[in-house]
Amino acid sequence: MRRTYVFLGLSCLVFGTAIGAPRQEPLAEQQFKNIVSFKGEKAADVMPAMEFMSGSLKVECDYCHTDDRASDAKEEKKTAREMIAMQRDINAKHFGGRNVITCATCHGGKTHPTPVPPIEGLEVRARRSDSVAPAQVLQAYGKAVGGDAAKVRAGVRLEGTTTLKGEKTRVEAIYAGDKYRFVNHEKKGDKPEGFNGSMAWFSMPYGIQPVPLQYAVQFVNQRQVFTGPDSLPKLQNLTGGTAKLDGRDNLVVTGFQPDKTRISLYFDKQTGLLGRAAFYYPTILGTIVRINDYSDYRKVEGVPFPMTVKIHSPEGEIVQQFRSARLDPKVSATTFDPPKK
Q1: Which of 24, 170, 280, 291 has the smallest CB count inside 10 Å?
Q2: Nearest partner of 268 among 253, 252, 250, judged by Cα
């Protein structure tokens, strides 16, 4: 019986619409209270628009609304109005009013859009915590690596492989303090690169490309392997935090270098060892993020050393896997200079 009533009701609606004068659809402000962004739009278009925003941020209605849907109590609702106005302004000025730029363009299913080029590891975010004292975390790191860490900083030679874009090459590396030299043995020939303490350099088809120190921060940090507190970047305005890294609890120390580069160092809460160094480099257009993950720690003359380093950057992922390591305290300083030819 109920189905009959529904069918008859729909029939009457269709029949009445067909023979009567067309009714003007109500506007959003006529059907909903406190409408701001959608004034002048059809009321029927409001809920689909809400659904689009919800899907773009992967949130429910209560992210912006209270039980009283007309209320302006939540800041998120005010922000949403500003974002709608911004989207419309961009599309009107640059795309002829077409919805080319939308909530989904920037948010991509997240409440906060990612303002940096996407790389692996960005999903891990440290939470600031006043209970985490940076000095104590660094002290624990010093105990974890032991008092002989200075031996490794005096000089260590490593052999292994580097994998970039699916291609694996044999690599030899030498570290001494902040200085290093890498040689990738590629099919087309050896490609050395290094840092001698005052200048970074790398190989190009036309020869060696020097990089002055003031421009070499990213290049140098990408290759650094830290072996104790003294080897870490010198940071200012330190803060503490916590994070999960590969399911393990980490204590995070964050600070800034003089050039305003922000660095977050992740230390395993249980072992005290460094598991990640995240570098945030400011540019005039935005921030570039590079992340180094350190794992597979093995003892070299009693000192824990990360034999696997994964480098995540906008250019792609580099995996360095060292098979062997031996101390060499007699490494010559000239080893880290660029080739003369």
Answers
A1: 24
A2: 250
Torsional class of 247: left (φ above 0), alpha (ψ -120 to 50), beta (otherwise): left
Q: Verify that 137 and 255 share a domain, yes or no.
A: yes
Query: Is 223 within a domain?
Result: yes
Domain count, the chain: 2
Nearest to 237 by CA among 267, 219, 220, 258: 258
Residues 30 and 172 in one domain: no
Beta-carbon-side half-sphere exposure of residue 40 (alpha carbons within 13 Å): 1
Q: Which two tokens stand for residue 198?
A: 């005052």
- For residue range 265-292, what is the model confidence (pLDDT) as tens digits? 999 999 999 999 999 998 888 898 999 9
pTM: 0.77
Which domain range does residue 182 map to?
Answer: 127-336
211 and 332 housed in the same domain = yes
Encode pLDDT of 133-155 as tens digits: 999 999 999 999 887 777 778 88
